[in-house]
């Protein structure tokens, strides 16, 4: 690393330049590899959703078991992210990146070839495990590869666009593969994508030695946080099927929150914590974590319930359903990449606030949907506005969440971002599904007669619009809280963080 000499004759590290960065010449190619890896992880959260009915018919599992195809992935992925991030710092980002890709591809191949429900769920859990190794390594590699503030803003804008649009891309790809090939290809497709990313990593990422001052892993903290997150996410998943008052739901959520509180106590006392608390308590990073959590909740409302509406109410095919989200993808990419220069100059505070308020407006538009609404007049405007808002808020949040973190903790800071995003999605899954079910049930019970097919359609739409109103509220609350927490002005990038892929 370059050094400067002070007036006292002491040599201190200065901002790393291109000569200090072994990846400077290939940084944009590396961004392509990282973005592809992130796309694999993000699209897998939704690509299987469209394939689920076909897979259920082929393998013969029940409706009660169906949710575990999604929940198994979420449980493993969300609970192991912090451990995966710390392993990335200890073992090496390059090593964890490649290991995660290879393992994810292998699990996808097994899932695609599954002949029964148990193998398919096991493969989805394995995908979550290796995704927890891959995601933090990818983000931390991006953090240490781009050290120039302007270039960093552009790189994170692209990364944020992929993260925000990946779910919608998964719907399109899942619809096309299910309709023209087989539901199995919704899993097989990860294999060639991962192979390309592994080859790119082998060619572009340089292996370096781990710093001597990096210590071991916090075993007590790791065990407690994994148990806490598994319990919490499992409780949320149970709420959808068993109800909020069920013993399983209450015990698991309560135990999860208690264990997470114990985890915070452990981290405040151990000498080498899994998650140094200063990473979370920093106002800028804390606000960034909340942004991705709020966006995770709101995006769930769009991806799941708008998918239900266009497929079940409007009768769209799987492929047409996927392509109906294209305007939102374009909106996300437009603002995520187009606002990079603005965010570099003024910081994330204003863009995040404006973005989340735009997303809230989009939700309000969706809340006006009726049984006979049309795509062009009633859905398209909301998709565009929501996409613009999501892109404007999530890209600066990803960048700010890892700014100012020393290289030793880049992996765990990156894992924290992904953890908050995953927990946000899990909360959205449970809470919004419960609201939708309750609204639909109340509508039908209020009829005072046996519901007709038309009544059932009206009740379903009432459930969807109820969710969109709640999602609008989530975005407004998120805009106010996060806007207040973010400091005004650009976010400083730590100039002394060594650039390591190890």
From TrEMBL:
Residues 1-20 are annotated as: Disordered. Its main location: membrane. Keywords: Cell membrane, Membrane, Transmembrane, Transmembrane helix, Transport. One of its GO terms (cellular component) is plasma membrane. It is a multi-pass membrane protein. It is found in: Cell membrane. PROSITE patterns: MFS (PS50850), SUGAR_TRANSPORT_1 (PS00216). It holds the Pfam family MFS_1. Residues 30-490 form the Major facilitator superfamily (MFS) profile domain. InterPro entries: EmrB-like, MFS, MFS_dom, MFS_trans_sf, Sugar_transporter_CS. GO terms for molecular function: transmembrane transporter activity. The chain crosses the membrane at residues 28-52, 67-84, 96-114, 126-144, 156-176, 182-205, 217-237, 243-266, 287-310, 322-343, 350-369, 375-395, 467-486. This is MFS transporter. It comes from Aeromicrobium endophyticum. The lineage of its organism: Bacteria, Bacillati, Actinomycetota, Actinomycetes, Propionibacteriales.
